[in-house]
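Continuing the series of single-chain predictions for the mutant panel. This is the parent chain; the variants come on the following pages.
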Amino acid sequence: MYLITVFGNLLIILAVISDSHLHTPMYLFLSNLSFVDICFTSTTIPKMLWNIQKKSNIITYEGCITQMHFFLLFGALDTFLLAVMSYDRFVAICHPLHYTVIMNPRLCGLLVLVSYIMSFLCSLLQSFTVVQLTFCPGKKIPHFFCEISQVIQLACSDTFLNNTLMYSAIGLFCGGPFIGICYSYSKIVSTIRGISPAQGKFKAFSTCASHLSIVSLFYGTGFGVYISSAATHRSHSSATASVMYTVVTPMLNPFIYSLRNKDIKRALRRFFGMADIKRPIVMRLKKCWLL
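Parent structure:
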């Protein structure tokens, strides 16, 4: 599953880079989302696979803090990029005549840059407050990675500030983009309802279907983890649910976008076609050189 996630998202990035027809705001955000998904999965799964191979569950304190920092960074980036992509669809459907003016390269670059900066500041602040805690020896994290709520629960010092900051960050950096996504789609739905031909409605909605599927998967599993863990306090069920949004959702992203997107499929065919064309040319050149 990890290899499928990495290679699937990498193919999306290569398709967008290699095809000039995909150098548009929507595919710029999609390639960034694919890159973030690779990094998001790589913060936890390689260490878990290493532990399984070595039959050891040990992680150093520095390694735990580093893993937690990058997990928060790329997790927040996922939420911001999904919100940015929903705004892109909102402009494309609700203001199609002004799309190229509004979604200009400068604004697109600024949206991506702000997403990275905000996510970095969020993860840095969270990691800094966790470093200030005192931990008792002999305790274990009941999870397959250093999840921040599990780490805070192991502290021997007062964790009121950490819990307050953690839930505030969840509300601001997860709830805020989610509200933005809901607002964008409420406007999109009202605009689609105003389109008279049924074919036009289907075409407008089909441009959002892939993104809406990813949003549902990511937020559905993410909220399910924290709601279930808060309600049941069972670390095993929380760890099992975490696999959904740390492994399954990033793995499904390439399939959802490539299977439902003709532009991506065309770019991938062109990309592999170029690779097949170049191979015999190189071999012929080598043969001539040898002769």
